[in-house]
Amino acid sequence: MLSRLTIAPLLAIGIATALVGCGGGGEACSTCHVEDGGLTGKGGSFSPVGTAGTLGSGARGGSSATGVAGSFAGTVGTAGTTGTGGTVGTAGTVGTAGTVGTAGTTGTGGTVGTAGTVGTAGTVGTAGTVGTAGTVGTAGTTGTAGTTGTAGTTGTAGTTGTAGTTGTAGTTGTAGTTGSAGAGGTTGSGGRGGTTGTAGMGGGGAGGTINSGMVVWYKLDESSGTTAADSSGNARNGTVTPVGGGTGTFSTTHQVGTNALSLNGTSATVGAYVNVPASLNAMGATTAVTIACWVNVTTARNWARVWDFNNSSTTGYMFLTTQEQTNMRVRFAITQTNNAGEQMITSANTLATGWHHIAVVLDVGATYTGTLYIDGASAGTNTAMTLRPSTIGNTPNNFIGKSAFTADPYLAGLVDDFRVYNRALTAAEITTLYAVR
User: Fold this and answer.
1) What is d(CA 68, CA 38) in angstroms, rounded to the nearest whole number?
2) pLDDT tens for each residue of 157-183
3) Minimal CB count within 10 Å: which of 34, 108, 164, 223?
4) Cβ(16)–Cβ(73) under 8 Å?
5) pTM exceeding 0.85
6) How far apart are CA 289 and CA 425, in angstroms?
């Protein structure tokens, strides 16, 4: 039989192998000791992995003997604490938005979050977690579209209205970082051309250059009295003069402006006329000349005058009649002497009843073309003209509605917008003048 002294060391070794933590912490094993006098071995000191306690020294019966094995191996050292997790990475700052209209600035990317510090290992510390990356900066805002172009202004009225300026194109919106480019503004529509001015001097006349060179202008818009005011600015007012009990009055039946002059001639001795105070030469209409007016004949009579500028019936005159004796047509004539020396322009047709615009144009040149216009169109010409106002001199007798010949009747009808120019109006200007209402 084995003695306890023999078995004890063996048990100590076996138990120390089989049990964990016995004899740790420097505390004697409560079950493993010797009966006889040997001192209980001191437990191994504590360590992360307990080292087996050293065999205790002891003696039995005073003799030295190997002591009972120290307490079982110390407990396995507690694992080092888990390393503290790294701090979470700070989120990147949000990218600044691009400004509106102007290209949005690229949003500044968020800064990448700083990785968390690696946790300090305990004995075997766990690594700290990696910090979360910062968020990506927000993209810039979409650029605002360009504004629509402004429309052109309406052209200013004049002889020909100035075209309106082209509308300015809208500015193209600058793209943001991802902004769509603004659409170009539409081009402004051209302003409409202004209509031809209808104002003349004091209104009622054609606009633009049609008033250039006018030396007398009787609008005949008076409502009463005997004065035919000159609107040319030359103060050559005419005087309405009754003869033989006839009358000359202003009527609301008109073609231009507000009124017209009504002459009620009934014969060569009864009627009325306008006395013009100056000859064509005195007016400055000596070479080229244009005389124009509206006429509405109420009773047609041979040789009744629309107008007549003369010295006498035998020493020079120039006139316009709505009806000559032979073919009842419109005629202009000029002479230095009498009817035998007349140079004439005669219309191709008779004059119908109602309002008509009649103009006589004598051009420049030693031999020139004289033209008779009716209602804006040429009604007759004479290409071999040589006589003109300067040929007959400063005439003392200048009439509207009366003839130099005492046998001719006074005019029965209405006259409106009587004009004299010291130049030859062009065909286009005559058309423009005819359009004035």
Assistant:
1) 8
2) 333 333 334 334 434 333 333 334 334
3) 223
4) yes
5) no
6) 8
